[in-house]
Amino acid sequence: MFSGFSRRHFAKLTGLSAFFGLAATPAKPADGDARPAAERHAPFPFPNDFVWGTATSSYQIEGAVNEDGRGRSIWDTFAHTPGKIEDGSNADRANDHYHRYKEDVGLIRDLGVKAYRFSIAWPRVFPEGSGAANPKGLDFYNRLVDELLNNGIEPYATLYHWDLPQALQDRVGGWQSSDTSKAFGDYAGYVAERLSDRVKNIFTLNEAGRFLNFGYGWGIDAPGLKLPLGELNQARHHVVLAHGLAVQAIRAKARAGTKVGPAENIAACVPAFDTPEHVRAAEMATRELNAGFLGVILEGKYTDGFLEFNGKDAPKFTAEELKIIGAKNDFVGLNIYAPQFYIAASDRKPGWSVLPIPASFPHMNSEWLKVGPEVIYWAPRLAAKVWDIDTIYISENGTSSEDKLGPDGKVYDLDRIMYLRNYLSQLQRATSEGVPVKGYFLWSLMDNFEWIFGFEKRFGVYRVDFETQARVAKLSASFFRDVVARNGIGV
């Protein structure tokens, strides 16, 4: 039942795609290699100030769903609904990170990275979604942030990684109502006011392209709704409005210097050939295929193509809402796993076409995760060009693997190492050409509850035995530690 869907597969992009856009010129390559002749065949390392990190999310690892006043989330409800999770599991305990966070911070430190992207559970802080806050909920994140800083690790917080308070879903229909947008803005301001003395970088919403289409459009994720296209697009509008209200609240409540931006699973386009006409086509496709979230946030308007394509199903909005949505971001996080669209130039409107991907295309342990390392070069390059972005983080990248323990008790995940080596080489190519990628967050620190797949798909560089909660470093942890120490591949 789940074989055709995944946490980051959204090739159909209901209501998000449109087929008209503005052309942009190809990205200009950086200046020539000025290194001494003896060094010219070695790749450039990543920039000296490049941020290396790893990432997790609250519902996937924390457990402790009924402790210290936490309210229920839509994923608590969904995971306990028979038939929704492939292996019949739930995240009531998950990795027990709520109690083992000090041990887990030690795992981060041992990788040699200096940054950690975690998410805050909205229902821990506001059990009813709005109204009275729960101080004990934020206390956990205070303890986590202090532990990170004590270990020399910079905290990067995400305010929403899909665990919407169930109370908001019950009361107003969740993202179907702008009341949820306003509640999110209030929640963002509350957290920023109390954590920004130590947390200097805040992601607002994670992967709207997934949680909206899959949760409100196709009934696959929580809360399991199948809304008509017009209602789905209106819910999408409420999400981008929530982002804008959160940016406003963080600007108003956070300490000076706090930076904010979205984290999105960009509809990742790759030109079929690296020639000017195909690159230009990929730029146009990038703009239009991301018009419903990244586009409106970064341009402060919906593209004409998006509105025309959706017609009577386009979202209703006001000029004031667009002004809020288009508030300036300090960075953009891009979650990049696989190429979603190979693009060719076309002499027909809209000037580009999507090429079919053959069944023989290679993929990883998760069938949706096609192996296309060039996507992590092209996606940030095209996004930076189309929207004039000066700071991009790869907020997620990684892969699942079979990850079986060998007779010696170790995990030799050579396929994950192959994947990371190739992807990071392409990202290194991007930064060497001046693409403004400032950091990389490996998904994930450790195996966790992988949404509709339960515990069957393992993305971590640390293996977790979910019975004993023992953490074991996989071979990929050693590989990634070496990349971080060298600040690159092959340097």
CATH class: Alpha Beta
Give the biggest sheet: 8 strands, parallel, barrel
Fraction of residues in β-strands: 5-15%
- Summed up, the domain count is 1
By CATH, the architecture is named: Alpha-Beta Barrel
Question: Helix content range of the residues, please?
Answer: 25-40%
Q: What does this molecule look like?
A:
The protein has 491 residues and is α/β, with parallel strands linked by helices. 38% of the residues lie in helices and 13% in strands. The protein has one domain: Glycosidases (TIM Barrel). It has helices at residues 58-61, 74-79, 97-111, 122-125, 135-150, 166-172, 178-195, 208-217, 229-253, 276-289, 291-299, 304-310, 319-325, 375-387, 414-432, 475-486; strands at residues 51-55, 115-119, 154-160, 201-206, 259-264, 269-271, 332-335, 341-345, 352-355, 392-397, 437-443, 462-464, 471-473. Strand 8 (341-345) and strand 9 form a beta hairpin.
